[in-house]
Amino acid sequence: MDFSPLKAALADVVAIPVTPFAEDGGIDVANHRALTRRLLDGGVRIVTPNGNTGEFYALTPDEQRLVTELTVEEAAGRATVLVGVGHDVPAAVAAAEHAAEAGATMVMVHQPVHPYVAQEGWVDYHRAIAEAVPELGVVPYIRNPLLAGDRLAALADSCPNVIGVKYAVPDAARFGAFARDAGLERFVWVAGLAELYAPSYFATGATGFTSGLVNVAPAVSLDMLEALRAGDYVAAMKVWERIRRFEELRAEEQSANNVTVIKEALSVLGLCRREVRAPSRVLPEERRAEVAEQIAAWAL
């Protein structure tokens, strides 16, 4: 199969949408559709339902399927859908097969959460998923700094639909080495730690980056992408400076507030309830005021 259109789609701002909850605690279907349309209207061309910013691990399997279906329906003809899948192998395979049936064209495989991950076992896990959906592009989500680049190359040798990587190890030098060991030109490299890491990762080989902030301010994220594509790191770092504190709030306490800050910002804008599911928690009052102050400066 020719995966070049999917590879081109990955080299972009890869939006990770939130999952809005209704007052009764379930998924707010109407608001989910509205937030997805807002992203698309803002210029986003690839979205990842069931990503970490979408609270993947707090959703039931039925809810994950619903989020996939809602996103595919809204994105039809407007954006590429890269569905997050994970957990045990049968669950990940079932989710990937459902993504294909729903009309998605790619899946992102979450970093295995098993406490004991062998490097060859990592290959086996991803191979089982990729082989089940040979028609879909497959994008491993790598957060393990110990994984060797040649293991990714070995996976792609047997599964040519493994076409890109979401790399989320906070070490630009490690990323540069890993990408070259795996094959810099062989895969699309997506900086998986969002805007604050995007400039350094682009400098060493990335051509796309993930974003949760894009839920709040699509134009801000797309401004950074435009600058990075042009090789204008001065302009990219001006965007970086604008969003630095907001992203630092998300990263506090080992990213405990990653989703919470995004939902708080959307709440300030009147777009989404602030509620998140355990083990996340809503922000305390003093932090809410700081989030509001940050987004006010962006003149949205």
UniProtKB/TrEMBL annotation:
Keywords: Lyase. Gene3D superfamilies: Aldolase class I. The keyword Lyase applies. Pfam families: DHDPS. Belongs to the DapA family. This is Dihydrodipicolinate synthase family.
